[in-house]
Design goal:
The protein is mainly β. The protein has one domain: TolB, C-terminal domain (Neuraminidase), CATH 2.120.10.30. It has 1 helix and 28 strands. The strands form 7 sheets. Strands 24-25-26-1-27 form a 5-stranded antiparallel β-sheet, with no helix packed on it. It has a 5-stranded antiparallel β-sheet with strand order 20-21-22-23-28, with no helix packed on it. Strands 2-3-4-5 form a 4-stranded antiparallel β-sheet, with no helix packed on it. The chain starts with a helix and ends in a 7-residue tail after the last strand. The N terminus is likely disordered.
């Protein structure tokens, strides 16, 4: 697997990375006004965030984007709820609508352009259903998952300019796949099910299979990747609790993302500095392994723990 890692991002060795000095940092996300819940999914290198909120008066899920000081813009991409899953440095936002009333099979995927125009993603002129999540900075390509009604399965894909470009080739036997993140080198991350669910890092025809290093791990998925070879992901333990990690792909080193008081922690995306969007049952946050990687403000928490490399896959 080391050869695959070298082919994907350049060989930097497989020794354990040294622990960042000092404590980790958590920055609470300011709730969208008049909302009952706010979730943050995406962050770009200007620390502009994107996500969704539930309206306090009507219970409808809507998308938002804006700065960490709580200056937000909101929008709907369709009926039945909207989730904004990612925002890139150019101001493009990706996500899906019908988030509350539908399943993957009837959730239209959208791309919102910097001028505010919203376009549903299509293939051969027909709407594509599923979700789009990560979007890169170099070409505005986005990674996502579409529902293949013929085979009744989820399929990872890459799109651009409101169109499906190609499916993500997963060169291992699997039943279904999810595309979650893509960086400026067109490295795609996500997960596939065979079972159990396992994370993947794909570039071209090369794949790196990722499984969190724990005897209690029942499934792993990578949710985002930045332009510096870092990824974030989630894993589920035997009791069904969701945990998250920051992964240095070159060294195969996991750093646990912890939120005090939270049982379930879901990391969704990260920017080039390593600032991570996190949703948990203790609230929504930006998490950073080191204070120097973080925007201003926030609270220092316990220093992150590291899991030694164990090879990919387990």
């Amino acid at each position: 697997m080391r050869k695959l890692a070298c082919a994907l991002i350049g060989c930097l060795g497989v020794a354990a990375a040294s622990a960042p000095a000092g404590a980790a940092v958590l920055i609470p996300i300011i709730p969208v006004p008049n909302s009952s819940a706010t979730t943050v999914f995406g962050i770009n290198d200007s620390n502009t965030i994107a996500g969704s909120f539930i309206g306090k008066d009507d219970g409808i899920e809507r998308a938002f984007f804006g700065s960490l000081d709580g200056t937000y813009s909101t929008f709907d991409a369709g009926s039945g709820g909207t989730e904004a899953r990612a925002i890139n440095n150019n101001g493009y936002i990706t996500g899906f609508s019908n988030s509350q009333n539908g399943t993957t099979a009837d959730q239209p995927i959208f791309e919102r352009r910097p001028n505010g125009n919203i376009e549903n993603v299509t293939v051969n002129g027909q709407p594509l259903f599923g979700r789009a999540q990560g979007i890169n900075n170099s070409q505005n390509k986005f990674a996502g998952t579409f529902w293949d009604s013929g085979d009744h399965e989820a399929v990872a894909f890459v799109g651009r300019r409101g169109r499906l470009l190609h499916e993500v080739r997963i060169p291992v036997v699997h039943q279904a796949s999810d595309g979650e993140g893509i960086n400026s080198d067109n490295v795609v991350v996500g997960g596939f099910f065979q079972p159990p669910q396992q994370g993947f890092v794909v570039q071209g025809n090369s794949i790196l299979v990722v499984f969190y290093v724990s005897d209690t791990d029942t499934g792993t998925v990578l949710e985002g990747i930045n332009d510096n070879g870092q990824a974030v992901g989630q894993w589920v333990d035997e009791d069904g609790a969701v945990h998250s990690f920051l992964l240095d792909i070159a060294t195969a080193t996991f750093t646990d993302i912890l939120v005090p008081g939270a049982t379930n922690v879901r990391a969704w995306n990260l920017n080039s500095a390593g600032a991570v969007t996190v949703d948990s049952d203790a609230g929504a946050f930006i998490w950073c392994a080191r204070k120097r990687d973080c925007p201003a403000g926030g609270t220092e928490v316990a220093a992150p723990t590291h899991v030694a490399p164990a090879g990919f896959p387990r």
